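From the shared-data thread, chain only:
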Amino acid sequence: MPRFFATGSSDSESESLSDDEQIQHKAVTAQFSFSDDEEEVKRVVRSTKEKRYEELSTVIKAIRNHRKIKDMASILTAFEDLTKAFTKAQPIIAKEENGVTPRFIIRSLYELENFINDMWEDREGRKNLSKNNSKSLGTLRQKFRKYIKDFEEELTKFREAPDLDDDEEEEKGVEEEDSSEDEEAPAPKAVSFKKEPSEKPSKAAKDEESDDSTYWGSDSESDYDSSEEEHQYSNIRERYLKKTTDKDEKDEDYEKKKKKAKEGKIKKRREEDDEEGEWETVTKGPATSAEKPKMFSKDAEIDINLVLNKLLEIMSARGKKRTDRRQQIELLYELMDIAEQHNLGQAIAVKIRFNIISAVFDYNPKISEPMKPELWSKLLGMFKDMLNLLLTAKNITLSESVLDETEEYEKPPYMICGCVLTAAERLDDEFTKLLKECDPYGNEYVERLKDEMTVTGIIEQVLKYVEGMGNETEICRVYLRKIDHFYYKFDPTVLKKKNGELPADTPTSIDEMERLCRYIYAKDNTDRLRTRAILSHIYHHALHDNWFQARDLVLMSHLQETIQHSDPPTQILYNRTMANLGLCAFRQGNIKDAHQCLVDLMMTGKPRELLAQGLLPQRQHERSLEQEKVEKQRQMPFHMHVNLELLECVYLVSAMLLEIPYMAAHEFDARRRMISKTFYQQLRSSERQSLVGPPESMREHVVAAAKAMRCGNWNACATFIVNKKMNTKVWDLFYEADRVREMLIKFIKEESLRTYLFTYSNVYSSISIPSLAAMFDLSKPKVHSLISKMIINEELMASLDDPSETVVMHRSEPSRLQALSMQLADKVTNLVDANERIFEMKQGNFFQNKNQFKLQGPRDRGNYRNQDNQNRNWNSNRRDRDNREHREYREHNRGNRNRREQRVEED
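Structure, as tokens:
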């Protein structure tokens, strides 16, 4: 009988078994286990302190092992790992050890210091080192001597009384930890399928057992179950006979046991987690310690040097990967409160506030993203406080020309390194980004726009401080920032002062703009500031209908010749200035100048992009994602936008007033040029439509008005241009809109009269001036003036009869000689054109054949000669043909002349 069935034998057989056989039986049964339990590994939940200390112990052990074989390169790498691990463990040391460095770390540094000194003093041993180890030894010595400066006091105490027992215990603890990791888990116990255990294991035994033992039960339970089962069956066969009910019961017991074991594991883990401490809420961002590090110790004496060192320590973490920016700002606020409580002076207060402003600017990891509203509020308040301190205390100098070594905080005059102007410019840029991020049609944009008063107030305070410093370059920069905030704003007092409604000495925005720009023109050394100041000055003049001043500035500056070499923001400002200048010319009745200002902007079809007021949908991969991102950053805030529909309407109406009379005057001219390509495209698209309904959009209104003007119907043209819908969309947006509408209707009448005369002058022999005045609702002097200009400019072949108030048309037929001269001129022109085309063709063939000779050699020169001969023959044939036609024409004329002479003689 096999030994496996020994447990199922009779009592006598079981009693006769020895202890050794029972041990062997247990060893045999131990090899039966389930794969599910083998895959499960016990999870140990450790505290942060245990993790950090274990990392330090592992690195220290590695250093000791490398020291034994004198592997200097590995020691250097392990020392760098030790410094990193100690940096990670510093928050735990500050919390658990009250900032005292653990003794085993000091001991490791002490041992490493002795080892490095011994190796360095051993010159013979250094010569025997490899090149890599020798270089690593020098690097390690330098880094170690620099690193242990922070541990001088601890190392001095340790050298006085090194604790040998503690050292042995520490080494022993490290060895035990390493050995415990290498040991294997104990083998699983025998399997028991009993529903409920008879005895519960004690707590100590439960802690010592592994997960497998808690699941399968203890040895006592298995022995108890087996002894019970022995009395239930008379023989072994009945015990191991397969039964359906037993299998089902065992399966149920197994499932219940497994479920109960899992619940026990979960409960045990929860208890262990609860013992470690309270649960923490993990926030997004870099991993930080649960508690902020203490600013100063309780018994520390707070003075200027201590605060400056702490400030330097906080700001030295600026820009590092795992730095918590929010916590950095909070620490700076706490440091500011401490400095105020101990009255350390205004210089320290200014320095801390300046660093807080820099930390708030650095909070966003991406420069393109806007600042959060709560940080924006903190930034504005901190800026105000810092500027108030700078303006009240006259003996504080905050300038970038001050070096870090020359800073002074204890005795006046106080010197601080920094630039308040750069911070103000960054603040202004952040405000622009905030506006661009908001929805322009919501209340959020209006609320955010209210902060512009605060920003402009800050710029005014910065201007006062910079003017006190006397730096002309910085003053020009502040002036330009101030100009950028009001050059696009309309001031109604300017027009009232111009109309005489206000006294002549009333200050207006025009006067302020003149003062700021003149200072920049005189003192600025950079072309960019001067260019932007000129463009802003032109924009402001044009906005207030100072057409002649704005035009003179444009002509004198010659910006249109060099603007393509400027940076994109300056080019955008130039486009905005030219658009506003065109609107100003239109309001003043200078239609031709308005068209010239707007034609370069509108003919491209991309005024929205050129004015930085949005991006058109991407067509055929015109720009990449990076280019689109850069262009979005250049967009203007919504309150600075120019109305594109107003701009397009002014451009099309100006083109209509210029183009329609020109088309009527040169209707049969084959070489007629286009004044406005965009306006032509609108007319052609309307003419291609089979069915044209009443106009709806702005463009359709302008096209319908142009068609009415071509017929001389000024009333219909004015109705299409000036109506309720067009007033709402376009004309009501102008200041003094009624004056603009009256001016527009007057021009429509005049251009309709000119178009009528050009179109129907060949029908009339004479036209009455009073009838023209009544037809176009114009005064007789105005009609007389318009017709006189047309006659003087040789646009109309007519003469004025003042007594009868009529316009006499001159329709003189050309004479025979004039007709022949015109024919000859046409033929000569055609001949010249043909000769030019032949010359160009011949020249092109010559260079082409010459290149072919160079490539293919001289074998094709005969083909070239043949082609040249053909060209000569063609030219000679053309000359012969022209001569023959000329002879036939002369003979025909001679025959006609002879026939006329014979007819005269017969008469």
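The two ends are 165 Å apart (CA to CA).
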